[in-house]
Amino acid sequence: MQVDSKVLVAVTGYGNWGRNLVRNFSDLGVLAAGCDTSSEQRNAFRRAYGGVPVFDDFEAVLSDPAISAVAIATPAATHGDLVRLALKAGKDVFVEKPLALDYKDGARLVALEEERQAAHDPVADVVLHSGLCCSDAHHLKRLSHADGFFLPY
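The chain above was modelled as a monomer; its predicted structure follows.
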């Protein structure tokens, strides 16, 4: 599948790892927005990336048609619900580990993505960060130009 336009990514969670993702997506020129429930974190995001919108509500990110992908770097207990919401909203998803807190929830997310792929052109839409070093902008750039945005390797 050839990507015709630039993928625009919103990062939810501006904690330690979220800051790395935001920095790298910004360096790549694909950062569309940030999202965090903490006003302190949103203010820190604004100070660092003043021209980029920042939301306090994940639903606002999902309803923005300009945002084609989300990167989730929130507490592990929220991953399953946020991935589910993003997939149902038609967004591509990068999620920090773990994908979900239990096997059944993870399996349901995989099944949801498989249904989504069956209904559309199949692409690798969900990537679970496996602990491999992804903080390097060049590595992310290579992945961002692959079919389906991020492909596991």
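The chain has a mean pLDDT of 81.
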